Amino acid sequence: MVREIKIYPDEVLKQKAQPIEEVNDEVRALVDDMFETMYKKGGVGLAANQIGVLKRVVIIDLGSGKENQGKDKIVLINPEIVAMEGEQVGEEGCLSLPGLYKKVKRAKYVKVKALNYDGEEFEIEGEDLLARALQHEIDHLNGVVFIDRLSPLQRRLALEKYKKLKRKYEKKMASQR
Fold first, then answer.
1. N or C: which terminus of the chain carries fewer CB neighbours within 10 A?
2. Angle at 25 between CA 31 and CA 13, to 5 degrees
3. Can the keyword Metal-binding be found in this entry's annotation (predicted)?
C-alpha cells in the first residue's frame, strides 16, 4: 500500500522514532508499504517517520527508479551507526522536502548495525552514496532532516527557497486529487 509522505515542517519529522521490540508480520508489512511508497515517489531511501510511523525502520534501494529497482533492497530495523570515517560533501534531496537539493557534509564511510527483514542482526558498511543514504535516513529516525545539517545562513536560504517549492508542490498534489 502506498502511504502518504509527510512534508516538512510536519511535526512527526522532528520526533525521535521508537525501537522495534519484535520483527513480526506487522513490521514486515510496514517495510513492504515503505518500499511501495518509495518506488512510487521516486526516492532511494525512506524512514518510517516520513510516512507518519514513529518506529526505527529505514529502507534504501540505490537502484530505485532504474531497471534494476528492487535488486539492492536494504532493510534496516533499529539501525545504529557504529563507525564513521572521512568526509564527503554532496547534494542531497528528500521526499519530505520535495524539489529542494543542497550540498551536505557527511562521513565518507559508515558501518551500521541493524536487524534485517527477518529480525536477524547484521552489519552493513557503506562508502560514498551508500554512506550518505545511511546517514540521511538514520538522521530521520532521530528527528533530523538534511537542512538541519546546513550552516544557519544556508539553512535560512534553503527554507526561503523551500517555501516557494512547497507552494508549487501543494498545487500539484491538489490537482491530482
1. C
2. 35
3. yes
The C-alpha cell at 59 is 529502507
**Amino acid present at 25:** D
Q: Per-residue pLDDT tens for 23-67?
A: 999 999 999 999 999 999 999 999 999 999 999 999 999 986 556
Grid-cell match 516538512, residue found: 8
Residue 49's domain is classified under what CATH number?
3.90.45.10
pTM above 0.85, yes or no: yes
Rounded distance between C-alpha atoms, residue 53 and residue 41, angstroms: 17
- Ranges of beta strands (E only) in the chain are 45-47, 57-60, 74-85, 88-92, 102-106, 109-115, 121-127
- pLDDT per position as a tens digit, 153-163: 999 999 999 99
- Residue positions forming the annotated binding site for Fe cation: 94, 136, 140
* 5 within domain boundaries: no
Residue 15 CA to its chain's centroid (Å):
14
36 included as an active-site residue: no
> How far apart are alpha carbons 68 and 171 in whole angstroms?
32
Single out the catalytic residue among 67, 137, 160, 170: 137
> Does residue 37 belong to any structural domain of this protein?
yes
**Helix, strand or coil, per DSSP, at residue 93:** coil
Do 165 and 100 meet the contact criterion of CB atoms below 8 Å apart?
yes
